Amino acid sequence: MSDSEQSVYAKRTKTIHYGSLEESDRWHVDRKDNDADGSGRTDYSQLTTADYMALDEDVAKEKAALLEEFERRKKARLIHVSTDDGEVKSALRKLNEPICYFGEGPADRRLRLKELLSALGEKGLPAAKPAKEEEKPKSQQKETNESTWYHEGPESLRVARFWIANYSLARAKKRLEEASEKVRQHTATKAGRMVELQKRIQQLAPQCSQIGDTRPITGCTINEDSTLLLTCSLSSLCKVWSVPDCTLKQTLRGHKCNVSDVAFRPGVANDSKSEVAMASCSFDGSVKLWAYDNEESIADISGHVPHRVAKLAFHPSGRFLGTACYDASWRLWDLEQKQEVLHQEGHTKAVHCIAFQVDGSVCVTGGVDGFGRVWDLRTGRCIMFLEGHLSAIYGVDFSPNGYHIASGSQDNSCKIWDLRRRQMVYTIPAHLNLISDVKYQKNGGNFLVTSSYDKTAKIWSDKTWQPLKTLSGHDGRLVGVDISHDSQYIVTASYDRTFKLWAWD
Fold it and tell me: Which helix (H) or strand (E) holds 98?
């Protein structure tokens, strides 16, 4: 074809069909059947409106199932289940469920009961609701389900809580006044004091190293006037030593099992007689109270047997004694009323450590479950939940400022918590092995000390959490540490059967 020749294009005529679409739909269906290949796959390009509606219904069913699962999990979180393992087993028995699976612990069993109650709903509850309660509005029923349940306490608890409230308010007022004075101080003055303190810490050296017992030492503490040191060991003996020469002054005999911790009672003079001045606890659950003029205990506290009492601490007033027990609870004892005023549950596993705030209004407990809890002693409520450690918590302490909390854990870290913000503020990767104890400086809170199974104790600054000094010299793992009230001495106790007293040069 030459270039001069022109191509002629014919325009295709558009055909318009009139009438019903029934025959057209039938033709599409027949064509779909004829064009289907042997692989069994469907040509989705030929799907009708009904097929698309069926797919939408399947998606809606899946979405409804997901929403139902989310609602069930939400309901499970709101269900309150007792921490008493016996009550959990009783509830499972009423639901015709196995009370124990192979390898299942109390915490797993409690979680399984929550899942069952959330799945069964109201029909699965062991006890039927009264008719009057079913007629309540939904809003009231929701408030009832989400409310915290309480046990009725004795009259002695009410008396103790009123006393603690009056005592702590005066202490808090004094602490806030001192904090205001520190804020008004010049920045250069405060910086100079911190530099001087850090220089003194660098000069720390062993003042005395003493063999404390024939078996490993498990705890140590210094009294208020920094003149006496108290140690305990696996030999069931507790010993009182003088400071700073570390000469033996008194041996306390009475425990029949390994002693786990000791504590000095605040506000008791060294020359007092027949007055409770010290306390100790042991692996068999016994707690004994001691005086300076007697080598035998003047009183025994029963109620923990056969569970181990790991740690104990005196209230700042000296009137109350707190004990951390391996039955997943902690207890508060009133030494004036001579009875137990509070038996507090809340941890899912053993409670290992306890510490009181300087005001005396709250206390903190750490458990083997890896969680800590802050309790208001005036109301009995848990006001803060310490969640962040990967393993058991073995040491807790309050800063003198009243709102910072330090916790040492088996995960080799020390975490700092802020009670005002109710959250963790810093994590110190402190040691190469588990942290056995942690203590704040008592007269300022400018530094804290951690002891570890890596045979060292370390001193950390309060503001920047930087390491200031490493105290090394023990041949065995460290199990306890304490700082004197005048900040002149630091004592460390070890499994090598010795304790060391560190002082400034």
Answer: none
DSSP assigned state of 130: P
Measuring CA to CA, which residue among 473, 394, 472, 477 is closest to residue 439? 394
Residue pLDDT, tens place only, 25-84: 666 666 656 555 544 454 555 555 555 556 667 777 888 888 877 777 777 777 777 888
Does residue 297 sit in helix, strand or coil? Answer: coil
Q: What is the dihedral of CA 102, 103, 106, 107, to 10 degrees?
A: -120
Q: Which two tokens stand for residue 145?
A: 């389900």
Most confident of 1-5, 203-207, 238-242: 238-242
Place of tokens 């370390």: 458
Name the token pair of 354.
Answer: 């306890």
Q: What are the pLDDT digits (tens) for 225-253? A: 999 999 999 999 999 999 999 999 999 99
Which residues make Cβ contacts (< 8 Å) with residue 56, sequence separation at least 6?
Answer: none
By the 10 Å C-beta count (0-12 exposed, 13-18 middle, 19+ buried), 15 is classed as exposed
Contacts of 218 by beta carbon, 8 Å cutoff, 6+ apart? 232, 233, 234, 258, 259, 260, 261, 479, 480, 493
What single string gives the DSSP state of each residue in 137-151? -HHHHHHHHHSPP-P
Distance of CA 241 to the CA centre of its chain: 34
Structure tokens given for 241: 């030593």
What does the alpha-carbon distance between residue 15 and residue 44 come to, in Å, rounded to a whole number?
A: 27
Q: Exposed (0-12), middle (13-18) or buried (19+): which is 309, by Cβ within 10 Å? A: buried
User: Is 271 a residue whose pLDDT tops 80?
Assistant: yes
What does the alpha-carbon distance between residue 248 and residue 230 come to, in Å, rounded to a whole number? Answer: 10
Residue 270 pLDDT class (50, 70, 90 cuts): confident
Provide the 10 A C-beta neighbour count for residue 20: 7
**pLDDT value for 248:** 93
| 33-to-24, 37, 47, 56, 291 alpha-carbon distances in Å | 15, 9, 12, 24, 99
Tokens of 22: 């029934």
CA 414, CA 347: separation in Å to the nearest integer? 20
The residue written with tokens 């140590």 in the block is 220
Chain centroid to Cα 388, Å, comes to 8
| Strand ranges (E), 296-350 | 299-301, 309-314, 320-325, 329-334, 339-345
Residue the block writes with tokens 């007629």: 135
Instruction: Give, for 134, the enclosing helix (H) or strand (E).
Output: helix 131-134
The whole-angstrom separation of Cα 240 and Cα 249 is 6
Residue 331 near residue 322, CB atoms below 8 Å:
yes
> What are the chain's domains?
157-504 (2.130.10.10)
CA distance 229 to 244: 9
Structure confidence at residue 131 as a pLDDT band (50, 70, 90): very low
Q: Which pLDDT value is given to residue 139? A: 47
Q: What is the 3-state secondary structure (H, E, C) of 471-496?
A: EECCCCCEEEEEECCCCCEEEEEECC
Q: What is the 3-state secondary structure (H, E, C) of 241-263?
A: EECCCCCEEEEECCCCCCEEEEE
